[in-house]
Amino acid sequence: MPSPPDIAIEVYGKTDVGLIREHNEDNFLVADVTTALRAADGRDPFTFKLGDKGALLLVCDGMGGAAAGEVASQMAADAIYEALVRAPPQPRDGFARLMRRAVERANEAIFIQSRDNQSERGMGTTCTVAGLVDDTLVVAQIGDSRCYVLRDGKLAQVTKDQSLAWQLIEAGAMTIDEAKAFEHANIILQALGVQERVEVVLSQVPLRKGDVALLCSDGLHGPVTDEEILAVLIAEPNLQKAGEGLIQKALDRDGPDNITVALARFEGATLLPPAPEDLVSFIGYDPGNDPVPEATGTNEDSGLGRETVEERLPRDLVMPDDVPTKTDSGEPSATRAKAAAPSPSAPRTARSLLALFLVALIFAAAGGIFVMKCERDQSERSDTRVTLP
């Protein structure tokens, strides 16, 4: 395997409980995988040379109420990091397959622990992972945390939210602004630990000199617009000040959720300078399915993760209000799920009506599992998987 390219990576990460939640269910990780050096929460940024095992950034937004969401997000971060640290160096395709399988196995571990422990039943977490072994950033996506790339004064989202609202946006049924007021905005299509298997969506971003990657939970991108995120990143070239500024912006909007940011800046002679013809966007990535050697031996690829969210029909939809959940045995439980209250000022435009019509169609075709990120009151977050009666 050739030596890694001459790339220097500056990283910073920080998480905040916000102003409403009693505890923080988010987790992040920024690390030099080669030396096993991980950044601590809110500490000064540090810079390292890209090694043969690569670099890793990760943000997880846990769900499940009590401390279960925190358990799920920590399990995901630890499992993915340890899988990359234990594995031998890989070229990009092998590294991407390793990332995909690490996410899948994190899902399996969380699912089993949730199934076997009553106090953690129903826990789950979103997971956005960005890894690098050469000059192309590889991103793995589960849920609605996000990855952005800032290049040459422009900000682009390079992941696609796995949510009902995002699908309606892509279908032209609503605008991004309308999605923020959408009463079903708390429904996501996937989360680690909620189902026995997940479909990991991979994408890639060829990097340029000076690019900044931002991974964040919806505690940031929910209350803060992309334009406001861009303004903070441009105004604050220092990663620590930028990260703190982004979190403060969400706190200024009442900090309704946990807020997490992970930032990385890429420099080095290997990277080309930005060019006017560069297009930064979501670019799907299929690294193939060959076995990837690991520290414990070689395993066949599970075959998951090649089907994107856009290629599959949603398989279930919860009712918006007061629907009984079910236990894994299928018997109704006493727990009831409540969606966030719709905005009283949400416009009943033609697109909004079309969105509701599409929701009805999806509901009629339902047959699997969705995840609803619910709010019971101002201090408790209860995110649960809900099946149709």
Report the C-alpha radius of gyration, rounded: 20 Å
Given as residue ranges, the uncertain stretches (5+ residues, pLDDT < 50) are 294-350, 363-368, 374-389
Distance from first to last alpha carbon: 54 Å
What would CATH call the homologous superfamily of the largest domain? PPM-type phosphatase domain
Main pleated-sheet profile: 7 strands, antiparallel
Mean pLDDT: 80
Shape verdict: globular
User: By helix and strand content, what is the structural category?
Assistant: alpha+beta
Count of helical regions: 8
What is the architecture of the largest domain at the second tier of CATH?
4-Layer Sandwich
Fraction in helix = 25-40%
CATH topology of the largest domain: Phosphatase 2c, domain 1
Q: Kindly state the number of beta strands.
A: 20
Order of helices and strands: EEEEEHHEEEEEHHEEEHHHEEEEEHEE
Instruction: Indicate how many domains the architecture comprises.
Output: 2
Look at the structure and give the CATH class of the largest domain.
Alpha Beta
Question: Strand fraction band?
Answer: 25-35%
Oligomer: single chain
